[in-house]
Structures are given as structure tokens and as C-alpha cells.
Amino acid sequence: MLSASDLRKGLKVQIDGSPYIVTDFEFSKPGKGQALYRCKMRNMISGNQLVKTYRSNDKFEKAELDERKMQFLYNQGEEFHFMDTDNYEQLSLTKDQMGDNINYLLENMDVEVLFFDGKPIDITIPTFVNLTVTKADPWAKGDTSGNDTKPITVQTGYELQVPPFVEEGDKIQIDTRTGQYVTRVKE
Amino acid sequence: MRAAFFRCIRSFFYDQGFLEVDTPLRQPVYLPESNIVPIASEGQYLQTSPELCMKRLLAQGCDKIFQLSHCFRKGELGRLHLEEFQLLEWYRTGCDYTQLMTDCQALLRFLHATLNSYLASTYASDDKALFAGIDLTARWQKLTVADAFAQYSPIPLKTALDTGSFDEILSEFVEPRLGTDVPVFLYDYPHQLASLARKSTSQPSIAERFELYIKGVELANGFSELTDELEQRRRFEEEITAIHLHCGRNVVMPERFLRDLGKLQEAAGIALGVDRLFMLARNCTNITSAVSFAPEDF
Predict the structure, then answer these.
(1) Which of A105, A109, A174, B294 is the most exposed place for a label (fewest CB within 10 A)?
(2) Is B103 on the interface with A (CB under 8 A)?
């Protein structure tokens, strides 16, 4: 059991049978009053936000979560299929569960699949991924419009802003936490 | 600047004829308050405030005393809380809590003026103003707890007290609205929320206690001291029972404190969070920016 004083950003707790992650946390204690722990939490399955204030005597069940390394195979419409390379077990997640991750996912990519109560609920992909630029307007030399970025599309269909020197066919590194361009990668 | 700030505080109290005192940080007993948890140290406790010793000094004959001391409260860690923090406490005999409000005004105005001229002589003029956005020289606001609830709370004060949600309402709906342009004294607390304060003679349901707020930050807690030994013993007994029931801790009755309290005439005392005051003076929003070493610096 966890108590309110264990609450902190990133802690995963179980509320009414669902796993929640604490996304924001503030301790307050009005003069001579009780300690209050105000939390913003996200339901790790539905994505719903929850704001709640707890007191020191409140108790929590830790959310039992497992992670397994799996390989992305392919997607069929809204279903994304993964395989455990040790025992060849396969499973799928929905597009909603995948969230922004679909922007960076390539076939055969190794990811961590998160399980709650034996069911897959989320994946964690590498922080940096290298993707090929499939569409980019050429850089007009002498462009003095003052724009120091331009929009491009990478092989997953994801669009982002990059410096003007990036060209079609280049491989670029993207930070999957922010979705932003990091650098151009040499083959 | 931090050094100048502390020097200013001391010179304010010296100028007013206060005696600076120095009491032990580690003591075998503490005042039983159910919402404050002390940190144990080799069978004794680090002080949660210098209140116990300072009131005993008053009872033994001091009349105007102040102290700057480090205090420790277990598990208090947040934007405005550190487990180790510094309190400025001062006590006076022969007066009630209204005198302490006057002291607060005088102290903060003195600090503001003195530090401003110090800054002007030391740093380039681009240094930001102290207490930006707060007018310390204007008339400070006074608001009773009852009026504050009537204005800001979604539920009546009585309901909040009956349902035990006073603290939640206060921190969510009331505090953020206090002291946005001038400092505010929130005063006259329901008596059950002030275990060491004297009840008002004209209105026994309230205690002569106040809190000072600036920019929604609770800065100081002052009250007319309860000097009735028997009444204090009865309140401590309730606290000790509540602490044992909710936290399983056994608290020893501070007998010698009670004995001295019986000798005390009318008095008033206040605790002001100096880290928070310094934070506000510098226009910061996190207490860690006001101390030399925050927990994460180790």
C-alpha cells in the first residue's frame, strides 16, 4: 500500500481498478491545517484526466504494470500488431492506445509494451528515431522571407518543421518526446 | 542580499527594544498539534517551532523577545514547503494580536525601504523591484475568516467545518485570492482551529488568531496567547488523543510548559516564514530559490 506522502510526479497508482499516472502534483498545507496533496492524474487506458485532493491518511494501491520488449510487425487499419521475439507470441493495440507513437513507428522496431492486469495498454518507443524524408520542397537559395524552417513529410506520413537544408531522401533524427527535429543523420 | 535581509530583520527588532533569544533546536518534548509531525533525533525531537521555549521565557519574565531559528517538520515538501525551514518568531507581553498586525506592517515596510536603498547602492539599477506588484505602503486589508468564506467559498463556513473540508476550501478557493495587490490579514479563526490561541471574550466561538497573506502565500501566523493552564491542558489532551488515534504516535504532555503557562500574563506571539518572505521579496514563486541549499542540491 502507498500513502499520500508517496505521491509524486510519475507515480502509477490504481484507482477503481484502473491504472493512473500522476502528471502534476502539489503539496499544500494551509496554516496549522492538514497536509493536502493535490494531484492531476491521467487514466493510462482511457487517457481521461482526473484532478483530486488527497490527505495524509489516504491509501493507494500501486498499479501493477509489466513491461515486455516486443517488435512491431505491421498495422491493419486501426490495429497495430506486435510480437514477442522470445516466444513469438503476438498481440495488437488500437490506434487510440498508440497515440502519437504511430508517427514514429517503423516495421521491425523494438518497443516496450506496457501491460496492466495482463492486458497491453501502451507502448514506449525509443527516445530518438531515424526516419527518411519522403517529401520536401527544395530550398530556394536567397529566400529572405525570414523563415528558418520548412515543412516536410517523413516515411510514416508524419509532418514536421525542419531547417531549410534538409532534402528529400535525407535521414533525420526525431525526438519522440517532443516530436521535433534533432539532426540530419549520415548513412 | 540574503545577508542584508537578515541584518535588516535583526536591526528592526533591536531598534524596537526586543531581546534576541536562542533556544535549543533539539528537545525531549514538543507541543502536541495533530497536523505537525516532528523529526525524531536520538530519542528527542528537532523543534517544529521555537514556541514552547519562547513562551517559557516570557513566563519567566522576558517581555519582548524575538528569534530567528531553523525548524523541522516531517513530510512537508512542496512549492512553499521545506522539511527544514527558518521561522522568525516574536512575542510581546501586555498586548493582544492586533499589536502583532501593527508589527508586521512596520517590519515589512522597514525591510522594503532598507533593502531598496541597499540594492540601489550595491547593484545595477536593472535589478527588479522588491515585492513587485504589491503595495506595502498602502492600507493593508483585513478580512475575517467568516467574511472570506462568504466571499470566496462555494459552501458556507459552517458546512466546511462540519464536513471537515475547511482546509481544502481554504487552500483551493480562498488563499489564491488573498493579497493580490496589498497584504491581507485573515483573522478571527473558528476556535477549534487554534489550539494555542485565546478565545475572543466578546465572541467565544472565535479565536484571536490571524494569518498574513501576500500573493496567496501564507506568511505568518499570530495570535493572542492562551494563558489558562487548565484550558490548555484540556486542549492538549484532545490533540494527544487525536494524534494517537490517527497516527499511532504517543505524545508526552509538556508538563513544565503548562506549569510556566500558568505564570504568564496577557501576551501575543507570531511565527513568520522567513524563507517565504525572502522568496516574495525577490519575486520568486518557489521556496527553494530562497535558501542557500535546497534538498536537490545535495
Answers:
(1) B294
(2) no
Inspect the interface and report whether the beta carbons of A56 and B75 lie closer than 8 Å.
Answer: yes
Quote the cell numbers at residue A166.
Answer: 534538409
C-beta atoms of A31 and B218 within 8 A: yes
Instruction: Please indicate, yes or no, if residue B282 is contained in any of the structural domains.
Output: yes
Task: Please check whether the domain covering A65-124 is classified as CATH 3.40.640.10.
Answer: no
CB-nearest to B167 from A26, A27, A36 is A36
Supply the CATH classification number for the domain A128-185. Answer: 2.40.50.140
Dist CA B56 CA A148 (whole Å): 70
Distance between A1 CA and the closest CA of chain B, angstroms: 16
**Residue B9's CATH number:** 3.30.930.10
Which of B75, B78, B167 has its CB closest to that of A33?
A: B167
| A36 shares contact with chain B (CB less than 8 Å) | yes
Q: How far is CA B63 from CA A177, B20, B207, B257, B286, in A?
A: 61, 11, 23, 17, 35
Q: Which residues pair with B76 in a beta bridge?
A: none
Q: What is the topology classification, in CATH, of domain A2-62?
A: SH3 type barrels. (2.30.30)
Mean pLDDT for all residues in chain B: 94
Instruction: Provide the CB-side half-sphere exposure for B217 (13 A, CA).
Output: 25
- Per-residue pLDDT of chain B (298 residues), as tens digits, is 889 999 999 999 999 999 999 999 999 999 999 899 999 999 999 999 999 999 999 999 999 999 999 999 999 999 999 999 999 999 999 999 999 999 999 999 999 999 988 888 876 655 568 999 999 999 999 999 999 999 999 999 999 999 999 999 999 999 999 999 999 999 999 999 999 999 999 999 999 999 999 999 999 999 999 999 999 999 999 999 999 998 889 999 999 999 999 999 999 999 999 999 999 999 999 999 999 999 889 9
Q: Find the mean pLDDT for residues A77-100.
A: 90
Kindly indicate the confidence band of residue A142, based on its pLDDT and cuts at 50, 70 and 90.
Answer: low
- Sort A1 into a burial class: Cβ within 10 Å, 0-12 / 13-18 / 19+: exposed
Element holding A123 (H helix, E strand): strand A119-124
Q: Which residues of B touch A34 (CB under 8 A)?
A: 35, 167
Distance CA A170, CA A153 (A): 11
Interface check for B187 against chain A (CB to CB < 8 A): the answer is: no
Number of domains in chain B: 1
Q: Select from B49, B79, B167 the residue whose CB has the most chain A CBs within 10 Å, as the one to mutate to test that interface.
A: B167
Which residues in B lie closer than 8 A to residue A29 (C-beta atoms)?
Answer: 35, 76, 78, 81, 171
Q: Do A33 and B75 touch (CB under 8 A)?
A: no
pTM over 0.90: no
How confident is the model at residue B137, as a pLDDT? 94
Domain that holds residue B261: 2-138+227-297
